[in-house]
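A favour, since you know our structure tokens better than I do. It will help me judge whether the discrete encoding reads sensibly. The space below this message is yours for that.
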Amino acid sequence: MSVFQELGAGVFRRRYESLDLNIGVVFGAEAVLLVDSRASHRQADQLRDELVTLTDLPIGWVINTHFHWDHTWGNARFPEAALWGHEHCRLEMIDNGEAARRGVLEWMPVEHHDAVNEVTITPPTETFASSALLDIGGRVVELRYHGLGHTNSDIVVRVADAGVLFAGDLIEQGAPPAFGDSYPLDWGQTLDSIVLEATMVPGHGDVVDAGFVATQQGEIEAIADMAREGHSEGLPVEALVGNGPYPPETLHSAISRAYLQLDGELGYVD
């Protein structure tokens, strides 16, 4: 039985137990496009080995949905591919990649440190600000930035002829969204601007539908409203973390980021 799930004609995903991460595979006429590259060289090599069981086509493109390590640290293992991402994805990996490595090493079990240390952090070389259309032979794949959300660099990858949208970590299934680098005041509006497809693939977890996205959007907007109200009343973050849709530790992260936005410390306030 194949480890790849076919979502539409020539469009697949591989859901990995490690980090519950999704990788996308999109077939073109003479090459395939990958959505994200996994969290290390070793994990990327596993992906390459598994792709041989799916196709003998070469890898023509690798798309990074955002700059986080678990989606990009396999990039160096695909040197033959055109490496695409948002312009902020490239800048974040150049400016903060080594700091991210130090942060991962602080919590990663020691038996995985060699895999982290051997990574060559490789940012996208092909970038865009708002959108890009990639003709991969027989089909066009759209890359689009809709605004601030999980990070400053989240993009979606739309395969319209198959009815599939790879949403990266703008959508999370199976666990609450991660707010550590987020922009909670904008995330809901960003989700609202995305043209949804029949099948949406989150960065982590199972595929979802429009109803799931609407629910998660409502939860994030509720957090933003809570943060605005608490901030205007001068309440500390700790006073708000018991009354939201996610566990206290998630709410603390989300509201803290929203407060930074409201204080103008992230360089952007809605």
